[in-house]
Amino acid sequence: MNLETLARCPLCQSSEFTNVLLAADYTTTQETFQIQKCVNCQFVFTNPRPAASAIGKYYQSDSYISHTDGGKGILDRIYLMARNFTLRWKEQLIFKQQSTGELLDVGCGTGEFISHMKTAGWQVTGMEPTEIAREKASQKVKEKIYSDLSEIHQTFDVITLWHVLEHVHQLNETVAKIKSLLKENGTIFIAVPNHESPDAKLYEQYWAAYDVPRHLWHFSKTTMQQLTNQHGMKIKQVVPMKLDAYYVSLLSEKYRHPQQSSITSMIKATLQGFQSNRRASKEINHSSLIYIIKK
């Protein structure tokens, strides 16, 4: 493995880390990766992790559906059904902030979201580093899809990162660039998994949203607040993604009990997803959270 080791925490610059758990890459290689926590600010991250030049092979799987646009197995079909519902829900969430305008989707995958928003009347721009996904997105929306944020020089009313920020190697540089691309009264929507959710605590190293080594950073509400403060921005609202608890629990059941039948996994995951959402509701501490951010 071509690994690099973080020497300092990107949030507080501390060099004192402690081990949290070992998690496996269930999607491609079955390799194990260490997850660590900054002793000073409690930020959690995969360390060591593949270098940016070596991470590509960990995305080369038909089961990595956000890039392949597949949908052959039962889990993939469930994901696609949920995604179609979520597209409409995301549109409504954005509409509460602004009815139309220019939108940038960072890490747009195969383009389902920007295609949906273009149909809804938005001027859309996509950025996707993975070539196969980028080509599919470009064909879908009939627009150029950029491979890197450095290629984009206009500003936007809305910038979205749907389960993307946890993947980027240069965390602070990416957030700073995104802020620079936002219009003065614009809004950023960042969706990330929450490692302090009830389902994360239940499944521990089998929690599917650790998704090592593709997920480099593992956020909580506290550390996301620290990150936005560090860049001179404010979190205006935190919105739960309640469906994620069910899908993540289903994958986690599969990882923890690989010999378990699909029906049994589905029943247990449905129960765990419901319980996780119920326990998380009081403090909005769900499996995945959307942070609505302003300058």
Please name the defining characteristics of this protein.
295 residues; seven-stranded mixed sheet; 36% helix
Task: Describe this entry's structure for a reader.
This protein is α/β, with parallel strands linked by helices and 295 residues long. The protein is built from 9 helices and 13 strands. The chain has helices at 65-68, 74-95, 112-119, 131-141, 171-180, 198-203, 221-230, 242-256, 262-280, and strands spanning 3-4, 17-24, 32-38, 44-46, 49-50, 102-106, 123-127, 145-146, 156-162, 182-193, 217-218, 234-240, 288-294. The protein has a 7-stranded mixed β-sheet with strand order 8-7-6-9-10-13-12, with helices on both faces. A hairpin with a 7-residue loop joins β2 and β3. α2 (74-95) packs antiparallel against α8 and α8 packs across α9 (262-280). The longest helix has 22 residues, at 74-95. It is globular.
